[in-house]
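Incident review: delayed structure delivery

Summary: a single-chain prediction request sat in the queue longer than the usual turnaround. Root cause was a stuck worker, restarted by the on-call engineer. No data loss occurred. The affected request and its eventual output are reproduced below so the record is complete for anyone auditing the incident later.

Affected input:
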Amino acid sequence: MTQVDVAVEDMPDHNKTSDVVMSVKNLKKHFPIMKGVFKRQVGAVRAVDGVSFDIYKGETLGLVGESGSGKSTTGRVVLQLDHATEGSIKFHGEELTEVSGKRMRELRREMQMIFQDPHASLNPRMTVASIIGEPLVENADMPKAERTKAIEDLLKMVGLDPSHANRYPHEFSGGQRQRIGIARAIALSPEFIVCDEPIAALDVSIQAQVVNLLKRLQKDLQLTYLFISHDLSMVRHIADRVAVMYLGKIVELAPVDELYDDPKHPYTHALNSAVPVPDPVVEATRKRVILEGDMPSPANPPPGCVFSTRCPIATEKCSAEEPEWRELSPRHWVACHFAEVT
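Output delivered after worker restart:
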């Protein structure tokens, strides 16, 4: 397997408010449950239920959790591909939930998305040149010759042969198709990209190559990422900070090394324990945390702490009171009654 480049770059300065690219406060996305002949609402699926975080210029914020935790919905709502039920989303201080029409179209140039399944996200009837060139046609007043040159440069940038520009998506491998999707995402020189599980559908041997490509593009183009994934081991190599999500809520947020080396929330402990360690001696002796039961339905979340039904240290207090979202140590936030500074 190709090794992921783990060289540590200069960390962004997160002390300046002006460095905040995306600020999300108390974000909620509830999908109504309709029943009966008259389609009356009888409930709601709380896919995202009060999420808050900031993303700073030039950094990668990893968003991890089990399937069904609300990660992808968060990414879509942040980009306003789905509208928020409640909460604030600010891009460089501009409230996206109040923007529509022409201004939202202008902002789309600055915010893009890389989708999970490169096969489903590329139009099979369009050539690669048409797919990558579509954003340029729609958003940039560019002569055809200049656009052709830009498409060739984008293909080279993501490691593809420009002579293959007139081929169709089915003629490429999964990893190559994802590179096409990445080229399309960076075509308009955006500042912020949501990477929605961009390596989940790829072979393990290709995943590291795509992660290295994303890291290189981030450095060369000064990109800011929200990197969504369920693969904690891969997130550790690309993220500066990591937010852990469970049942629509963020339960822990910390710098990447601190979160992996000293997790404070029981759910983070469990996720970390499931990641294999390459050292056979350590792997044989370390203690695994096995969670019992399944994640509750987001249509009927438990009272109090959402993790209380599966938490190995839960008490009656956990089932009755929702834990406060608090800063346990500098830049390390957690929502747990029993998290302590060590």
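Verification: The two ends are 36 Å apart (CA to CA).
Action items: add queue-age alerting; document worker restart procedure.
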